[in-house]
Amino acid sequence: MGPRIGSDEAGKGPVLGPMICAAVHASPSVIPDDIDDSKRLNASTRKRLRETLESHTAIDIGTAVIPVTQIDGPRTDMNTLTLNGHIAAIADLDGVAAFNGTIVADASDVSESRFATRLESGLIDECNGIDTIALNHCSIEARHGADEDDPLVAAASVIAKARRDEQITALAKEYETIGPIGSGYPSDQKTRAFLRRYIRTNGKVPACARRSWATVDDIVESIEQSSLSDL
Fold first, then answer.
1. What pTM did the predictor assign?
2. 34 is annotated as contributing to ligand binding
3. Does the domain at residues 4-169 carry the CATH identifier 3.30.420.10?
4. Domain ranges of the chain
């Protein structure tokens, strides 16, 4: 099997921090045997695999960071942002405009075919409007759960998640005076407690939080109600 490209994202659902998209271009034969969907791996394993992937001369990696400010934009949605992140990460690879193999993406749309069609269209636009991908008969696939069974998509998943882990570690250090920030996911009680402490202390939502998330609205509302009860 020849070189392929796999793409995936990490951080679509958290209330804290950016979303990271990654793409990996390589022959499946050079991907570590213990690669897997990043959600099945602990942080230390993801870090080790990331270092292995990034140090391999036969593996090309592209990434894209979607910051909180962009996620909170009034005229966007997470499906479009995720799609654009995949496009940007793939376009970040060396020589992608001339690639004529198979691109496999972990579909973030309920419709796999729609995600694949939008991905191809976006890549053509990203390559300066030149229909290089179609002319070279590049095959573009999008599948739910591709990070579980495709080694290139799994590798992209590990890169994206490990880099997001790094971002969360940096945020934890930045906000250490407030207390632990947790994983950044809405279901994490440490994350929710951090948001409550920060908002009560500073009277505003921290810059690392996705203000458009319902989690933040709920916490702000509960603090406001609590303040009224104290009057």
1. 0.90
2. no
3. yes
4. 4-169, 175-229
